[in-house]
Amino acid sequence: MTQVPAIQLSDGTSIPQIGFGTWRIPDSKVTGVVLAALEAGYRHIDTAAIYGNERGVGRAIAASGIPRDELYITTKLWNDAHLTADARRGIENSLMRLGLDRLDLYLIHWPATLQYGDSYIEAWDALQQFKAEGLTRSIGVSNFLPHHLDALSGETPAVDQIEVHPTFSQRALRDELTRRGITIQSYSPLGSGADLRNRELARIAARNSKSVSQVIIRWHLQHGLVVLPKSQTPIRVRENFDVLDFELDAHAMSRIDALDGDNRVGWHPDTARL
Known about the structure:
By secondary structure, this protein is of the alpha/beta class. It has one domain: TIM Barrel. The protein has 11 helices and 10 strands. Strand 5 (72-77), helix 3 (84-98) and strand 6 form a beta-alpha-beta unit. The longest helix has 15 residues, at 84-98. The radius of gyration is 18 Å and the shape is globular.
């Protein structure tokens, strides 16, 4: 099996640089899709309580026969569970649905300040306790901006999962997270499909005899990002994983970097009502 590169996190653990995202894959379908991803070689699976598919992901983990220590499982605490007692129920319910006794990475899904004020600060304190108890090896956040991070105390998040893709590369935020020692995970790494239609990316893909999605994923890897592609189509699942046998040259990387614009496809962390 192809060896996926790993990135060392600030807490001393390591994370596979390619993960499989499961957003919007219903529980009724996710077991088969995750099994296909595991068969293709993925060992890093990303889910969340709000996705409603943790049980199906757990079924795939159990059916795969892959030893637990060879898997990297991430899930996320939803916005209405930031208070300490709710957060504990959140992680315990996620572990139960996944059929696991520990996670590899647990994230606060959103700061959600419009609905819940600064309750994410209490959630962060709870996550640090969960890590101390061994319920998760690493802890982090998702969709956090620098002013959210500034409000946290104690341990620095190991990871911030943010929207990143060629037409919305968030370079200033990435630079700031890197300065803080926080590893960046890219969600919507293909721009929810929008970047696949970019003509410049199509030209670069043709010159490398690769698909556009493979070129985009390779761009993420070469920027040192943890990338979380998602597909429900087995051939696309395999294709998105098959990116370790080529490199983009500096010219191609700079051309992709130049595509950056204001093409956010998700919600802004400060204005999202979730």
